């Protein structure tokens, strides 16, 4: 009985997709927070703190 080992080769295309996704996500977050009103951003962060159970008052 003969067993053959297989190896997988990572291509640059398979590594560039997560990098591209993270870059677009980061740009989207920076763009969104840069154009949102400070009070809306504060209220969103405040609501998240309450939802996750962290005290904020």
General description of the model:
With 57 residues, the protein is mainly α. The protein contains 2 helices and no strands. The chain has helices spanning 12-35, 38-52. It is elongated and about 70 Å long.
SSE order and pairing:
Blueprint (H helix, E strand, L loop, with lengths): L11 H24 L2 H15 L5
Question: Which short descriptors sum up this protein?
Answer:
2 helices; elongated; 0% strand; mainly alpha; 57 residues
Structural class estimated from helices and strands:
mainly alpha
Please state the average pLDDT score: 84
State Rg.
Answer: 22 Å
The H-and-E topology, N to C, reads as HH
Shape: elongated
Q: Percent range for helical residues?
A: 55-70%
N-to-C span: 70 Å
- The tally of strands reads 0
- Identify low-pLDDT runs: none
Task: Give the biggest sheet.
Answer: none
Tally the helices. Answer: 2
> How large a portion of the residues is in β-strands, by DSSP E?
under 5%
InterPro entries: CbtB_put
Organism: Roseibium limicola
Protein name: CbtB-domain containing protein
Pfam family, one: CbtB
């Amino acid at each position: 009985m003969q067993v053959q080992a297989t190896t997988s080769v990572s291509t640059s295309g398979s590594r560039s997709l997560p990098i591209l996704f993270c870059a677009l996500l980061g740009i989207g977050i920076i763009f969104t927070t840069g154009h949102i009103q400070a009070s809306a951003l504060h209220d969103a962060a405040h609501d998240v703190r309450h939802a996750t159970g962290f005290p904020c008052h």
